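Can you give me the bound-state structure? Components:
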Amino acid sequence: MTETRVERKERTRRAILDAALHLCEDSSLVALSLRQVAKEVGIVPTAFYRHFESIEALGLALVDESFVSLRAMLRDVRRGEGAAGGFADIVDSSVSILVEHVHQQRQHFRFIARERAAGPPSVREAIRHEIELCERELATDLARLPGTEEWSSDDLRVLSNLIVTAMVATAEAILINARRPDVEKQLAENARTQLRMVLIGALQWRSKP
Amino acid sequence: MTETRVERKERTRRAILDAALHLCEDSSLVALSLRQVAKEVGIVPTAFYRHFESIEALGLALVDESFVSLRAMLRDVRRGEGAAGGFADIVDSSVSILVEHVHQQRQHFRFIARERAAGPPSVREAIRHEIELCERELATDLARLPGTEEWSSDDLRVLSNLIVTAMVATAEAILINARRPDVEKQLAENARTQLRMVLIGALQWRSKP
DNA sequence: TGCTTCGGTGAACGACTGTGCACTATCAGG
DNA sequence: CCTGATAGTGCACAGTCGTTCACCGAAGCA
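Here's the bound-state model for the whole set.
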C-alpha cells in the first residue's frame, strides 16, 4: 500500500477543489453544479457530500485557499519594501510581485475577483472580510512610512483602501488580458504610475486635526 | 381599445427587463433561467422568445439600459463641475451625485457591478467596453482642468482609470451597505478624501517627456 | 369584411439538477 | 484476525431546465 486512508481522502478533496477552481475559470460558483464537479473529479455525485456539505461550503474553502495565495503575495511585497531603497523602488518591486503572483496563482485570483461580486452571499462576505483585513494590514504598513507620522488612522485606512482597490483592479485587468504580454506590460506600467501619483498626493497630505 | 399592439409588446418587453433586473438583485445572470423570468413576468416560457433570442441577449439589453443610467449620472457630474468653484467643490458635488444616482438606479448599478465580473463573456465584454468609453470621456474632461496642460495623453488615461476604478469601488460599497445611512455617509466621505488625495498628487505630477 | 400578422398558449421532449437510501469494498484499530 | 468505520457506488425520485411544435385569438391592414 502506498497511501494511507487520510491521504486518499485528502487527495480526493484536493481533486474536488481543483476541479471547482478549473470549472470556475469561465463561469461563477453560483452557476456550478455538484454533478459537474463530481464528473470532473471522476466520482459519483453523492460522494461529493463526503467532503463538503454543499457547493457553498466548497466556495468558502476556496476562499480560504485563495487568500493563502494572496497573503503569500503580500509577504513578498513586504520583503521587497524592506530591501528597496526609496518610494520608486517600492512601487516598482510591488507591482512586479503583483504581476508575478497573479500569473502563478491565476485561478485563485480569478476566483476571488469573480466571486467577490457574484458568489453566494456568504462567499461574498468572506472575501469582503479578507480584503478588509488586507487593507488594515496595509494601513499599519503605511503608518511606518516616513511622512505619515501625523496622519489620522481614518486617513490611513482611506489611503490603504484606495491602493488596494487600484491593485485589485490591476489584477483583474491582467487576468482579462492573460496571454497578451504587451498589454500586460502596459497595465503594469500604468499601475506603477497610479501608485506614484497616489503616493505623491499622500506625501502632500495633512490630516485634519 | 386603450393600447395599440406595439405598445403591448413594448410593455411586455419592459416587464421582462424589470423581472430580470429584479431577479438579478441577489444572483447573477448566469444563474438566471428563462423560466424564472417568464414566471415572474406572468407569461409562458416560450413567449420569452418573442422578445429576446436568449438570456444573453437579454443581458446585453440590460447593459445598454444600465449605461443609459450611468451616462445620465456623468452628465449631472459634468453640470456640477461647470457650476462649482474650485477643486474641493467639484469633488464634493461629484461624490454627492454619485451617491444619489446609485440610490435612484440601484438595480442598474448592481447589475453592472455584478455582471462586469460574472456575466456571460459577451456581457462582460460589453460592460468593459462601456466603462472604457467613460474613462476616455473623463480623460478629455481632465485635460481641460488647469494644471494638466503638459500631461501626456497616456497619463491622462491612467489618472482617469484610477478615478473611475475608485468611484466604481465606492458605488459597489454603497450598494453592499444599502439601508445603512451612517455607513454610507462614511463611504461618501472616504470617496471624497480619496479624490482629493488623487487630485493633490495629480497637481504635482509632471509627465515624462 | 376578410385575410394576414404575431404575441401568447400548452403540451411534450430529453437532458440535467440536488438529494435520499441501501449497498460494497477496503483500510485502521482492538 | 476480526470488526467497525467510511470513501465511494448505483439507483431512484421529483424538479427544473431550454427548446420544439401546433395552435389560438385578437389587432391591423386591404
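A couple of observations. Chain A touches chain B at residues 26-28, 30-31, 113-118, 121, 128, 155, 157-159, 161-162, 165-166, 169, 172, 176, 190, 193-194, 196-202, 204-205 (CB under 8 Å). The CA atoms of residues 88 and 196 of chain A lie 7 Å apart.
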